[in-house]
Design a protein that fits this description.
With 510 residues, the chain is of the alpha/beta class. Helices cover 42% and strands 17% of the residues. The protein contains 16 helices and 19 strands. The strands form 4 sheets. A 7-stranded mixed sheet has the order 13-14-15-12-11-16-17, sandwiched between helices. A 6-stranded mixed sheet has the order 8-7-6-9-10-18, sandwiched between helices. The longest helix is centred in the first third of the chain and has 26 residues. The protein starts with a strand and ends in a 5-residue tail after the last helix. The structure holds nicotinamide-adenine-dinucleotide. Nicotinamide-adenine-dinucleotide (NAD) binds next to helix 7 and helix 8.
Length: 510
């Protein structure tokens, strides 16, 4: 097991360890091991040895433990929220709603639904050659799944992805982000405490090299993170011929049409551009507003963003927007704002770093923006909301689809038919009409990116079957000792099959 040493005063950082800071206060809160490649191989070997026993426990046995883990989570919610807030710099509400609520729901969802999604499927085949034979498709675990997670939602996007993999009967080695490993470690400790076998859910703390070592030896990789890292992981998995599922970056557009409920659109834009300080892969990263409602939308958004309270997350309700979790991210956010301003954009609200010692960037609204600016084309992943006026819906669609990403998108209009027509033309894995994000909670429906935003999806049947190898089993119970297709080849039978072919498929198409 990886050591977590809670040690607020620990400096300097010993070799082989990583210091974990509270992004909102700048304080060092823990040290974790930066696991070597050999250390990762050892964890994977342990997980591999534990896997058959875990699989043998069956769905009911694994589900029972999932429910126990959910019970632990609810009972220990205060400690878990404290840990998430401390390592992430997010507000208590961000931690409670998007991490703990999701995890509690997801633990029950997979515990209840896994067996149905993975039940053997009896195939009725059309082929005359298979007539009378039984064909069954079975889903079975790969063995050891490596989950590599980002820092913005360490529980939901790390442990959350481990849950379906575990319910299949895989063991999991999870590599949390090097800046947010503590809540993940806490969860793995809790899993053992509630009765999970010791080595079926292990945590490999460490940096990118630790992640790369996991990609080198796990049997399947579930990765969430940047497109840049996703490409490397996809390439390595291709070399090893092991499957991977990639949830990557986005630059999600919101389209506000002239007939929209502008008040609702403004509330949703502010909520999902600023929630978690904009550090959400599917946050609203850019807005296109049809000219007739542009001024009204801008006025509402500007007032609402201006009223947000930012600061060190304290008690529930104390602040709306927290810190920037990942140190280099604040430079990127600042560079996007500076680039926009240099090219003629106007800052309507915010625009600067907040006071330290923690890492804060003010909730920011940018106007007079266009696609020559990085804030409209590259992922910002911060509390910024660039708003662009468009002449009509066609221009909005063209600009929304301009770029390499395709994670999520949203359309605001009172004309639902039009909204659905527009949605179908957007290059995105997910589109919301008069809403944002909420389909993520419908765990029955897939969430995954199009284009450079990913390969594969989480949630739904596909979100658990991706952790399985399929095995097709054909059973012949009653048959001739020698079938007509068997040796020796004979001209009479060949003629018979030719006639059969003509009879079945020889008619000319209409
Ligand atoms: P990142 O790609 O820098 O790191 C993600 C994880 O990969 C970390 O654990 C990191 O240590 C590890 N890693 C780095 N290099 C590696 C390598 N060569 N091999 C294996 N692992 C390696 O991403 P991040 O900065 O942690 O997260 C932010 C990004 O994640 C944003 O682009 C965001 O859009 C994306 N994201 C996507 C989703 C989604 O569901 N599509 C969700 C959340 C975040």
């Amino acid at each position: 097991m990886t050591d977590v040493l809670t040690n607020p005063a620990a400096t300097p950082v010993p070799d082989g360890m990583i210091a974990i800071d509270n992004p909102a206060t700048g304080e060092q809160i823990a040290l974790v091991e930066n696991l070597s490649a050999e250390g990762v191989q050892e964890l994977v070997a342990r997980a591999r040895r534990a896997q058959p026993g875990w699989e043998a426990l069956g769905y009911a046995g694994r589900a029972r433990l999932m429910y126990r883990l959910r019970h632990w989570l609810v009972a220990n919610r205060a400690a878990v929220i404290d840990t998430v807030v401390a390592e992430n710099g997010k507000t208590r509400e961000d931690a409670l709603l998007a991490e703990l609520f999701y995890m509690a729901d997801s633990l029950g969802f997979w515990a209840k639904r896994a067996e149905g999604y993975l039940a053997d499927e009896k195939v009725r085949t059309h082929s005359p050659f298979v007539f009378g034979k039984k064909v069954v498709v079975r889903h079975r675990p790969y063995g050891v799944v490596g989950v590599i997670a980002p820092w913005n939602y360490p529980l939901t996007l790390g442990v959350g992805d481990a849950l379906p993999a575990l319910m299949v009967g895989n063991s999991v080695v999870i590599k949390p982000s090097e800046v947010t490993p503590l809540a993940t470690q806490m969860f793995a400790d809790a899993a053992r405490e509630v009765g999970f076998p010791p080595d079926v859910f292990l945590v490999a703390t460490g940096d990118g090299a630790t992640g790369a070592a996991l990609v080198d030896c796990a049997d399947m990789i579930m990765f969430t993170g940047s497109t840049r890292t996703g490409r490397k992981i996809g390439a390595r998995c291709g070399e090893r011929l092991v499957p991977c599922s990639l949830e990557l970056g986005g630059k999600d557009p919101m389209l506000v049409l002239a007939d929209a409920d502008v008040e609702r659109a403004a509330n949703v834009a502010v909520e999902w551009a600023m929630r978690n300080a904009g550090q959400i892969c599917m946050s609203v990263e850019r807005v296109y507003v049809e000219a007739p409602v542009y001024d009204e939308f801008v006025a509402k958004v500007t007032a609402k963003v201006g009223a947000l309270r930012q600061g060190v997350p304290g008690a529930a309700g104390s602040v709306d927007v927290g810190a920037i979790t990942f140190p280099p991210q604040i430079d990127l956010i600042e560079s996007h704002v500076r680039d926009a301003v240099d090219k003629g954009a106007r800052v309507a609200v915010g625009g600067h770093r907040g006071p330290g010692p923690g890492r804060f960037f003010q909730p920011t609204v940018l106007l007079d923006v266009d696609h020559s600016m990085s804030c409209m084309t590259d992922e910002t992943f911060g509390p910024t909301l660039p708003i662009m006026k468009v002449a009509d819906v066609e221009e909005a669609i063209r600009l929304a689809n301009d770029g390499p990403y395709g994670l999520a998108s949203s359309v605001f209009t009172r004309d639902i038919d039009k909204g659905e027509r527009v949605a179908r033309r957007l290059a995105a894995g997910v589109t919301w009409i008069n809403d944002a994000i909420m389909s993520y909670l419908a765990q029955e429906a897939p969430f995954g990116g199009a284009r450079e935003s990913g390969l594969g999806a989480r949630h739904g049947a596909g979100g658990i079957r991706k952790y399985c190898q399929t095995q097709t089993i054909l059973t012949t119970r009653w048959a001739l000792k020698r079938e007509p297709t068997m040796f020796p080849n004979a001209a009479t039978r060949s003629r018979l099959f030719e006639r059969l072919m003509v009879l079945l498929w020889g008619r000319s198409p209409r």
